[in-house]
Amino acid sequence: MVKTNPFTGLALPRRVRKLPTVLSVDEVGRLLGAPLKKTFDSEARQPFTRCAQLRDAAILELIYSTGMRLSEVTSLKEEQVDLLSGLIRVRGKGKKERMCPLGNPAIKAVRAYLDERETFLALLGKSRRSAALFLNKNLGPLTPRSVERMMKKYLAQAGLNTSRSPHALRHSFATHLLDAGADLRSVQELLGHASLSTTQIYTHVSIERLKDVYEKAHPRARL
User: Fold this and answer.
1) Is 69 a catalytic residue?
2) Residue 160 burial (CB < 10 Å; 0-12/13-18/19+)?
3) Hey, is 87 helix, strand or coil?
4) Are 49 and 39 contacting, i.e. CB atoms less than 8 angstroms apart?
5) Residues of the chain under the 70 pLDDT cut
6) What's the CATH code, domain 25-162?
7) Among this protein's residues, is 37 annotated catalytic?
8) Which of 47, 71, 73, 149 has the greatest count of CB atoms below 10 A from its CB?
9) What predicted TM-score, i.e. pTM, was given to this entire model?
10) How far apart are CA 214 and CA 219, in angstroms?
11) Is residue 22 within 8 Å of residue 175, measured between CB atoms?
12) Active-site residue, selected from the candidate residues 117, 170, 171, 176
């Protein structure tokens, strides 16, 4: 009904980008230590209990050590992990591969799980198993949903917010690296991001932390 658009030239408001949920270093430590805490006597009598505990500890350590996505963890095969060299070959989005270093706690956790898994298989008299690294009690691969439920259980045990997902460990991995001085390009490679702009969201998390510390510590920050 009009010859020209009256809204031409108006700039649309920028969409607010939600900052990722990040655990503190202390919270991560509490979460990673939760799987190996004492179990109830009824659980301890189950033959798979110890294996499941070590498996869960290894999964959480692995995600925080490498920044892997949940789908990458559940699809992980034993052949992709080299504990001697401390490297893991991760197949990410678009079937792209990247190499991720493993920290010593993650190496020890995965090795402990593999040893216990062999003991459990021997107890069952089983030699053949799924190619997946992390198995359920039926010797099949774990599903992403299973890992999500598992993490919520340990978040509760550690007294942390149970709404956090395994992706929060990936976010924490990236943020803690940047907080410690790692360069953005290296973090991009470790996360498997195709674009550096995707990784830059974590710099905003670090800046927000600095602002929070400043406001709490500087005597004239809130005058």
Assistant:
1) yes
2) buried
3) strand
4) yes
5) 16-17, 38-45, 127-129, 223
6) 1.10.443.10
7) no
8) 73
9) 0.82
10) 9
11) yes
12) 170
